[in-house]
Model the fold of this input.
Amino acid sequence: MHQLVTNFDDTGNLKISDLTFYNSLSSAALRQQNATILADLADQLDNTFITGRGATYKAGADRTKAMQTMVDILTDGTKMVSDLAVAVDGCYQFV
Done:
């Protein structure tokens, strides 16, 4: 997905606005429009977690909720990558 340009240890401290897809010069409306692109990214992540890593959805979560949760964070430049990790952990049970 090539969004990060740091090592793993430093990743959680990055703001979403530091990821390569995020354009801070865009209007909020354009960033929301880009949510469609982010939904594709969330779809890739969901597929990786479920198919590639054998995760299951936690109680109260499903594909739609998990993807929307990821998109909500990915469209908020003030959020951190660690916020995304916490949200993913809240939706998926990794074994």
Notes: The helical segments are 8-11, 28-33, 35-52, 63-74, 81-91. The CA atoms of residues 69 and 87 lie 7 Å apart. The chain is about 55% helix and 5% strand.
